[in-house]
Amino acid sequence: MEQNINRIILEIRAGTGGEEASLFAGDLARMYQKYAAKREWRFTVLDSSASSVRGYKTFVAEISNPSTGSGQNLYEILKNESGVHRVQRIPETEKSGRIHTSTASVAVLPVVEPKEVQVKPDELEVSFFRSSGPGGQNVNKVETAVRIRHIPTGVTVSSQAGRSQSANREQAMNILRAKLYEAQQSAGVEEISSLRREQIGSAERAEKIRTYNFPQDRITDHRIKKKWGNIEKILEGNLEPIVKAFRKSGG
Description:
The chain is α+β, with helices and mostly antiparallel strands. It has helices at about 20-40, 75-80, 165-185, 190-200, 230-235, 240-250; strands at about 5-15, 40-50, 55-65, 85-90, 100-110, 125-130, 145-150, 155-160, 210-215, 220, 225-230. The chain has a single domain (about 5-250), classed as Alpha-Beta Plaits.
């Protein structure tokens, strides 16, 4: 893999836990967006499926570093975010005060050049639809959003943030190439389904890499056995303590 990858695809999916899982996915999306802002990275939302005003069923964004030659490797910094994140808290939707356990999965993929992943036009199934906003309502009268299905692997991606079909198609192809490249690097395209399960799991509660325990105000990363307090501060984009911990561990 390249030594300095400064464009990545961030994909977040709500897992177990219904509406609370969607709210947690929204919290994670905002955390990464605020962290990117602190690092002066460009954060572009490519696609999202909202379940409420604050929550997401799915969320896809591109993060890039506009400062060329800075030496920052975005992929190396954020790759350890990939996996199932688990939250334990009293949801906003909970009326009896019970603590719920919910999950959201995160995938971090490098954006690669077209020459690194050969995708044949006849392997693609392309469709168009209207962009949607919070709650799923259509916000555009023209079908500018693009959905692309890679027939050999069954991988389906979409983009609706751009103002034109061509812009959304380009972004959707970036997402598709990133997913296929990661599969090729790790297991081969023919095993892409198992690769995705390995990277982000099935979003079941037991398949966690990190737990956000609100009653105890503690975040625990189960891979490097580290704990941090002040969850709210970290969710405001202060990820640096976690990033530094992984650097020290060699992860």
